[in-house]
């Protein structure tokens, strides 16, 4: 499906209509989960990111890019499939010299760039939405030796769901701001299956965490994985 007709474009279009874009204050922390304050902030990306090159796959309106660039001192590129999201990100944070925003498919961007990154991350972005047998080797190719990959995805056991028993995608849904639900394909793996896919690409998993939204359910909502290129 073309980006202009995708659920992600429609989500961005509705969000833009409801909340016109404007310059924003840079967030004081990075968010990995479904609610503010969940997870370990940007520490997962490395103890000292000053002068490092960092890439976000699926940057949305750019909040995390801005945080990592300003508060962690990195040079950060955010890539997103949806042009409306990149337009919002540039309106919010385009004034930041160490933050850049690019329209593009995560896989195609990785295949085309010559840049090597010290850290690559994704927050409910490309990881899980692009075939891992294609995306993970492309990430490994552009990740510097010893570099960090960190990503969060909807937990495969959220809301009573079950994780994939094979390597195929499953049907999931995107809920738009107007509460319309649109179908998408998503790879919903537990940490062990992610570890196997990462290992095939030459990336070693170093930790996995479950984040919970205690206001609505005791089930985990987010799976957060950190790995390192070998």
Structural class: alpha/beta
What is the CATH architecture descriptor? Answer: 3-Layer(aba) Sandwich
Order of helices and strands: HEHEHEHEHEEEHEE
Label the overall shape. globular
Provide key terms for this protein:
two-stranded antiparallel sheet; seven-stranded mixed β-sheet; 230 residues; alpha/beta
Describe this structure in words.
By secondary structure, this protein is of the alpha/beta class. It has one domain (3-229): 3-Layer(aba) Sandwich (Rossmann fold), CATH 3.40.50.150. Helices cover 26% and strands 29% of the residues. The chain has six helices and nine strands, in the order αβαβαβαβαβββαββ. It has helices at 7-18, 63-71, 83-93, 106-112, 132-142, 191-200, and strands at residues 53-57, 75-80, 99-103, 117-123, 143-154, 170-175, 181-186, 203-212, 220-229. Strands 3-2-1-4-5-9-8 form a seven-stranded mixed sheet, sandwiched between helices. A two-stranded antiparallel sheet has the order 6-7. α1 (7-18) runs parallel beside α3 and α4 runs parallel beside α5. The termini are far apart. The mean pLDDT is 93.
Question: Would you summarize the structure shown here?
Answer:
The chain has 230 residues and is an alpha/beta fold. Helix content is 26%, strand content 29%. The protein has a single domain, classed as Rossmann fold (3-Layer(aba) Sandwich), CATH 3.40.50.150.
């Amino acid at each position: 499906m073309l980006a202009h007709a995708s659920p992600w474009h429609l989500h961005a279009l509705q969000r833009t209509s409801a909340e016109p874009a404007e310059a924003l204050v840079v967030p004081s922390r990075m968010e990995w989960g479904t609610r503010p304050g969940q997870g370990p902030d940007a520490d997962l990306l490395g103890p000292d990111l000053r002068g490092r090159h960092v890439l976000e796959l699926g940057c949305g309106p750019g909040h995390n890019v801005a945080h990592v660039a300003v508060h962690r001192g990195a040079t950060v590129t955010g890539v997103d499939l949806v042009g409306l999201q990149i337009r919002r990100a540039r309106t919010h944070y385009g004034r930041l010299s160490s933050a850049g925003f690019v329209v593009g498919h995560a896989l195609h961007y990785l295949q085309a760039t010559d840049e090597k990154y010290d850290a690559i991350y994704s927050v409910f972005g490309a990881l899980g939405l692009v075939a891992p047998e294609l995306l993970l080797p492309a990430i490994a190719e552009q990740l510097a030796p010893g570099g960090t990959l960190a990503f969060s995805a909807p937990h495969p056991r959220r809301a009573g769901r079950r994780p994939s028993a094979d390597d195929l995608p499953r049907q999931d849904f995107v809920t738009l701001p107007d509460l319309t639900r649109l179908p998408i394909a998503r790879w919903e793996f537990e940490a062990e299956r992610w570890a196997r896919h990462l290992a095939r690409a030459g990336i070693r998993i170093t930790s996995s965490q479950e984040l919970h939204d205690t206001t609505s359910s005791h089930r985990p909502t987010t799976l957060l994985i950190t790995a390192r290129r070998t």
